[in-house]
Amino acid sequence: MIPDIRIADYNYPLAEDRIAKYPLPERDSSKLLIYRNGSVSESVFRELPSLLPEGAIMVFNDTKVVPARLFFRRESGAHIEIFCLEPVDPVEYNTSFASVESCSWKCVIGNSKRWKGDLLSYDCPEGSELEGMHLTAELLSREDRTGIVRFSWKGGEPFSRILELCGRVPIPPYLGRETEAIDTDRYQTVYAEYRGSVAAPTAGLHFTKSVLEAIKAKGIDTETICLHVGAGTFLPVKSESISGHPMHREPFVTSLEFLKTLRAGNRKVIAVGTTSVRTLESLYYVGVSCIEKGRPEDVAQWAPYEREYEYTLSDTLDGIINYLQNNNLTELKVGTRIIIVPGFTFRVTDMMVTNFHQPESTLILLVSAFVGGDWRTIYDYALGHDFRFLSYGDSSLLYKR
């Protein structure tokens, strides 16, 4: 049954001065709130390894933020912002980034009413590397503020290089400022690997190489999944009940070897960030589709709530592993629209590292579900002890309750 949850019940007072507009000079110097069985304490993030159980599995999202904001101009001189969301042709991220003449993307279009469909040219500074590439944008279709845009250019450079030369990192709108040089490095995890996100998995921004080394030295396995974070992560919940909020699709990839490690069982699983939690918990429902339909399917938003499931986690992981092996595949590639709200049954994740999220957001609901509804204890403590909030803010280590 789809939960009927009032989003207004997940509000809290977040003053503008509590939002961290810039990162701290050192990634691992942020504060760390620890929540376990209803009690709260605090530490510093660099002490995280000492707080983790030996022999656990820690799962990171190694997606990489792309400089997805592009600024074009019409012949009239009007400027149009184009924010790349996801590839359409070619549809695979890696293939699209490797394109050398043209590719099409679903985009958010700023000043969309001012773009009448004419061919746009990139507003290229004189003497820049892009000057001879003649980058253009063509509107193929439009729906409200989004549209399908075909980018074309000359010179044989891959689209990934085009974005590096002319795109800007899409920092969250609630920071209330333009992208600056510091964001190119700091709005990216140190372990980012695969391009595709338009928002950072921000729980990972606190990790440094020394923290990662200390985690491994404690006998904790570090594993990676890759979920590309979409712009929908910033979409506010506009409906009074969460039942009226549509979740966006996000593609993810997990390796066969990781699935086998997870299947071995009897080890605590620590997810770094809500994107890792959503990926890990989606695996159960992907496994259900493998068992019942013989193939992996995207996870629907309300799949966890629509029926009772009799399968164990081992059953569903076996379903995915058998499908991959039978089809000579080494990776699971699928998508998820899963929404995690109070009443959700966590089947994989035991502990979570996460930042402090916006009021009345789906991420607050996820945190509430994870801590048995006790989210206000956590947020009241953070508000009362000078914690910094949102993407560049402080961190927390939460135990499932």
Overall description:
- The strands form 3 sheets. The protein has a 9-stranded mixed beta sheet.
- The protein contains 10 helices and 17 strands.
- 24% of the residues lie in helices and 25% in strands.
- It has 401 residues and is of the alpha/beta class.
- The two termini are 22 Å apart.
- Helix 6 runs antiparallel to helix 8.
- It folds into 2 domains: 7-65 and 186-399, QueA-like (3-Layer(aba) Sandwich); 69-167, QueA-like (Thrombin, subunit H).
- The chain has helices at residues 48-51, 93-98, 159-166, 181-186, 209-217, 256-264, 274-293, 313-326, 362-370, 375-384, and strands at 31-36, 39-44, 57-61, 63-65, 69-73, 79-89, 102-109, 120-122, 136-143, 146-152, 194-197, 221-227, 250-255, 269-272, 331-336, 351-355, 395-399.
- The longest helix has 20 residues, at 274-293.
CA gyration radius, whole angstroms: 22 Å
Shape label: globular
- What is the beta-strand fraction? 15-25%
Per CATH, the superfamily of the largest domain is: QueA-like
Summarize the structure in short.
The protein is of the alpha/beta class and 401 residues long.
Feature tags:
alpha/beta; QueA-like; Thrombin, subunit H; 2 domains; six-stranded antiparallel β-barrel; 24% helix
SSE arrangement:
Layout: E1 31-36, E2 39-44, H1 48-51, E3 57-61, E4 63-65, E5 69-73, E6 79-89, H2 93-98, E7 102-109, E8 120-122, E9 136-143, E10 146-152, H3 159-166, H4 181-186, E11 194-197, H5 209-217, E12 221-227, E13 250-255, H6 256-264, E14 269-272, H7 274-293, H8 313-326, E15 331-336, E16 351-355, H9 362-370, H10 375-384, E17 395-399
Parallel strand pairs: 1-17, 3-12, 3-14, 4-11, 14-16
Antiparallel strand pairs: 1-2, 5-6, 5-8, 6-7, 7-10, 8-9, 9-10, 12-13, 13-15, 16-17
